[in-house]
Design a protein that fits this description.
Number of helices: 11
Bound molecules: adenosine monophosphate
Strand order of the largest sheet: 1-4-3-2-5-6
Distance between the termini: 40 Å
Strand content: 15-25%
Shape: globular
Radius of gyration: 19 Å
Structural class: alpha/beta
């Protein structure tokens, strides 16, 4: 694996690779890598000639400075995992390589995506995601971009970003990797106690419970009962459990039995904010 810290050197390297006809797959991450991230690298290796992973803890997407300060950093282990997974290139830029002093912060027209769910509870988060992704994509110029369904709304936002910017990457959304308990793998899980990790599986169980009990008609009772399940399992605070249109993410209060649905949840356990989602039909 080749490690690049400078955007210019990486851009040059990839331009040469493209000239030789190689197709590039890109896996952007914030590090503290786990099997979820590595599954994206695996998919890229199947579908592209050259796999580039980036590790950059992007300050502009943290609406809570304490969350940024506590974000886990395990760079040596990350490098080992990427080597083992056969990743070809790691881009590990310092902050001023992505945000040079004086470079203006762009804003993106994300419409309702920005005010629903994560957008509502994490103001500015998706603008920060778009800022970093626009910059990373402009350096890597991948043929395919690999992202996890774990961050369902983020995938929708990036689809919109690709549309707005005209950047030609094809977005490939990869299934959520889970612990045996069903808990979605996440870099933030390391901040949970062993007991907390067990309790946290309730988030997936409550989403599955909704999937099993979904029927045509009103959906409110399902989300209320799922919220009760989380509270009973010891979750401190629930930001949302929402049964939503899988395309627009608008809440669906009465289901016609046909519209494609997804259920999304965000809740706190041991002060750690966890998110998960499940396609319902
Ligand atoms: P992050 O480092 O958390 O920003 O995530 C980097 C990429 O990995 C994003 O596209 C995430 O959606 C994806 N990802 C994170 N957790 C998982 C998981 N458990 N399964 C699959 N993909 C994941």
């Amino acid at each position: 694996m080749i490690l690049f810290k400078e955007a210019r050197a990486l851009r040059q390297h990839l331009a040469n690779a493209t000239l030789s006809g190689l197709k590039t797959g890109f896996v952007p991450t914030m590090g503290a890598l786990h099997e979820g991230h590595i599954s994206l690298v695996g998919l890229s290796k199947q579908q592209a000639d050259l796999t580039v992973c980036s590790i950059f803890v992007n300050p502009t997407q943290f609406n809570d400075p304490a969350d940024f300060a506590k974000y886990p950093v395990t760079i040596e282990q990350d490098i080992l995992l990427l080597e083992q997974a056969g990743c070809d290139i790691l881009f590990l830029p310092p902050a001023d390589e992505i945000y040079p002093e004086g470079s203006p912060a762009d804003t993106y027209a994300l419409g309702k995506l920005e005010t629903l769910l994560e957008g509502k509870y994490r103001p500015g988060h998706f603008q920060g995601v778009c800022q970093v992704m626009k910059r990373l994509l402009s350096v890597v110029l991948p043929d395919k971009l690999f992202m996890g369904q774990k961050d369902y709304q983020q995938c929708m936002v990036i689809k919109q970003l690709l549309h707005i910017t005209g950047l030609p990457a094809a977005l490939i959304i990869s299934p959520t990797q889970r612990e045996a308990s069903g808990l979605a793998m996440s870099s933030r899980n390391v901040r949970l106690s062993a007991r907390g990790k067990e309790k946290a599986a309730a988030i997936f169980q409550s989403l599955q419970w909704i999937r099993h009990n979904l029927h045509k008609g009103t959906t409110g009772a399902l989300t209320r009962q799922a919220a009760d399940m989380l509270t009973a399992a010891g979750f401190d605070k629930i930001d949302y459990i929402s049964i939503a249109d899988a395309g627009s993410l608008e809440p669906v209060e009465t289901w016609d039995g046909e519209t494609k649905l997804v259920v999304l949840a965000a809740a706190f356990l041991e002060k750690v904010r966890l998110i998960d989602n499940l396609a319902l039909n």
